Please model this.
Amino acid sequence: MIGVVLGLQYGDQGKGKFVDYLLKDYDVSIRFNGANNAGHSVEVGNKKYAVHLMPSGIFRNKQCLVANECVLDPIAFCEEIDYIKQNGFDDSKIKIGSRVSLICPFHKHVDEYFEQTSEVKLGTTRRGVGHAYADKMRRFALRMQDCLLTKQQINTKYINCLQANENNMFKNDFENWKNEFDLFFNCLMRLKQYMCDVTDCFHKYIKQNKNILFQGAQSTQLDLTWGEYPFVTSSSCLAQNAMLSVGFRFNFDKVYGVFKVYTTRVGTGPFVTAMDEQWDNKTREIGKEYGVTTGRPRKCGWLDLIALKRSCLLNGVTDLCMVKSDVFDGYPLVHACTGYYNGQKVIEHYPYTSEFEELQPVYSTFLGWENYKDKNLDNFISFIQSYTNVNVKYLSYSPNREDVLER
Ligand code: IMP
Ligand code: MG
Model:
C-alpha cells in the first residue's frame, strides 16, 4: 500500500499529527519536498515534539527517508538528529537520498538579504530554501553524494556556488561566509552514514511489500506552480512530486488531504477569507496559531471551499482529514467561502492571481457546534463533502495523538 499525506491550504494544517496517526498502518515514512522551512509537531503522551525536515515516522520507530526532491541543510539536520536522539528516538532509521541538494550557510544569508531589501516581500522562513533550489536549477548546487569527495574538492564546489551568489549588496560579508565552510563540512561528514541510493531503497521496499507513507511539506496553495506565485515556496507540494522524489511511477492507494476548519497564512500574499480582528485574534489564541519554525503569528481566515475543492482535484484526494474542529467549539456561527465577488458579479471559479486583490468573499454560514459530537458539525461536514465530492474520512478534534474520529 502506498499513501501520501498532503496539506490542502497554506501549510500548518496539522499534517504532523495525521502522519503520525496514519503511520500505525505503514512501515516506511518518506519526506518528498521542501526542507527545514516546514515544522511538524506531534504530541506523544503529554510531550510535544517538533521536527522540520525529519520524517514523522521517527517517533514511531519506522524506516525514514528524506527523498531526492528535498533540499537539506546539513547543519540544521545534524541538530534535528541530536534532538531526536536526546529524546530517545533511533537515528539508525534515517536515510538521506544521495541526490538531495544542499542548503549552504550563505543561502540563508542571501534569503535574509532579499527579504530585507526586496520591494515585494515574500515572508520566507529565511532558511535559504528558495536560493538552494535556485542553485540546483542553475547547476551550482552541492549534493548529498558530494560527501564522498575530498575536503578540498568539496571546498572548491562550495566556493564556486558561493561566487555564483555574489552580489554588490553583500560584498562586504563575503569573506566571513567563506569561513562557515568548516562547520558545513563537518556536519556533512557526519551525515555520510545516513546516505542511500533512493532507487535501491525504494525498489527493496516495494519488493518486500512494505506499506509506504509519503509526507508533503508546505501545501497545495504554496506550491511553486499551482499556488499564488510569487507568494509560494520553491518546491512542488503536490502528490505527483512524491513519485519524482523516489524515481518510481506508481498509483497511490490513498491520497490523504488535510485541512483545518479555518485557514491560516504566514508570510505575505492574497488572503481573501481573512477574518476581522476580533475573530482573527480569538482563533489565533485558541488554535495556538504561531509558526513552529519561526514563531510568527499566523493570520486566520474562514475556510475557503473553492480553494479546497481545487486542491482536492490537483492532488486526486481520496480521503479528507479535517482538523481542529475543537477550535470552533462554542462559536455561534461558522462561515465558509463559496464564491468571490469582484464588484460586479459573483464568480465561483478559482481566480487568477492578479484578480485576488479585488475580490470579496461570499460566505455560506452555518450554526456553530459545542463539540465534535454535535449534529451542527455533522451538517457542516456534509456540506463540505458534497461541495468537494470527497469524503471527510477523519476528524481530529484535539491535539492528542489518539483523538481522531474515523467516519
Ligand atoms: P520559504 O519556503 O521559506 O521560501 O517561504 C516561502 C513562503 O512559504 C512564505 O510565505 C512562507 O511563510 C511559506 N512557508 C514555507 N514553509 C511553510 C510551512 O511549513 N508552513 C506555512 N508556510 C510556510
Ligand atoms: Mg507547519
Observations:
- The mean pLDDT is 95.
